Amino acid sequence: MSRYRRNPQISNGMIPLMLFQAVNEYRGLDRKPPVTAALLAANTLIYLRPSFLDHIIPPIDRVFFNAHLILKYKDLKRFFLSAFYHLGESHLAYNMMSLLWKGIQLETSMGSTEFAGMVATLLGLSQGITLLLAKSLLLFDYEKAYYHEYAAGFSGVLFAMKVVLNSQSDSYTNVQGFMVPAKHAAWAELILIQMLVPDVSFLGHLGGILAGIVYLRLKALYRGPSPLTRIVGGLTSILRWPLSSLLRFWRGPQQRVSGRGTTGGSGTTTPGIWRCRACTFDNSGWLTVCEVCGIGRDDVGLSSLESSNSMIPLDEIRHRRIQRFGR
């Protein structure tokens, strides 16, 4: 999260490099994390503001995080949307590369539904804690420095994600050239970034760290899935049905049917099902050869078996199945 400066945004080509890096990272993954990809796309689209979204995406002046305006006018738009806005290409690229690295690890390890619930929780916690910090500092006459500060960016959530990611690590990590314990990396980065880039929002980053700590404490107290995770899971289930139906319609009817028969039973069969005269396996009407033993549907070479009421030995059936399916 960075404080606002009224400098013109000059393109320096970092967005194409960021997208190129993101594509390369995703191509090498066996399992592509969809929530991380959606967050990257949302932040990038909001920054680029394509013409077809110009009437949907509010301008940045209306969504800056400002404690005074949020509390005075109950402006929840500033509270939630400011995290998805960035002040320049370098600001966006740095945050999105950090999101890509953290998101891939967290979403792969905990699953997309739980990861989405965690991100939503961390967003609310980090913004809420930052708001409380800015309001509480009025008691110490820090009104000009923080209470009326304009800020934007996803870095508050990223600091919270860093706390969660490193919470179980006993190793060391590099922070701006300094080797520090991974558990304390967020605190070291908070101090170093503030020293190197004074224009960033100190309260926004601090609120993110505290949000990560609060999230871990709440998770330790409550072992089950969080309410937000259940909501996200419910929404995913609702959306999955029409999407899967659309995919089935697009792909058309499946012609290969297997593994749907039964063996033995009475002599009656379901319409569209034929019973093998050798092993009594009920096969789909789409098949012309028995699923189990490989005998043809209209094979007449079994009369001797039928007359003597004998059955093919189980070992022979297994042997034919192995020959047919190659396993």
Give the C-level CATH assignment of the largest domain.
Answer: Mainly Alpha
The CATH architecture of the largest domain comes to Up-down Bundle
Low-confidence stretches: 5-10, 254-269, 300-310
| Strand percent estimate | 5-15%
Please count the beta strands (DSSP E, at least 2 residues each).
Answer: 6
CATH superfamily of the largest domain, by name, is: Rhomboid-like
Query: Biggest β-sheet, characterized?
Result: 2 strands, antiparallel
* Order of helix and strand elements from N to C terminus: EHHHHHHHEHEEHHHEEHH
- The helix count comes to 13
What number of domains? 2
End-to-end separation: 57 Å
Radius of gyration: 30 Å
Structural class: mainly alpha
Mean pLDDT: 80
Approximate shape: elongated
The percent of residues in helical segments reads: 55-70%
| Sheet with the most strands: spatial strand order | 1-2
CATH topology of the largest domain: Rhomboid-like fold
Provide an overview of this structure.
The structure is a single chain. The chain is mainly α and 327 residues long. The chain folds into two domains: 2-241, Up-down Bundle (Rhomboid-like fold), CATH 1.20.1540.10; 273-325, no CATH class. It has helices spanning 14-27, 34-48, 67-73, 76-81, 89-110, 112-136, 143-147, 155-166, 185-196, 202-221, 227-251, 303-307, 314-325; strands spanning 2-3, 151-152, 172-175, 178-181, 273-275, 282-284. Residues 5-10, 254-269 and 300-310 have low confidence and may be disordered. Helix 2 runs antiparallel to helix 5 and helix 6 crosses helix 8 (155-166). The radius of gyration is 30 Å and the shape is elongated. The two termini are 57 Å apart. Strands 1-2 form a two-stranded antiparallel ribbon. Strand 3 and strand 4 form a beta hairpin.
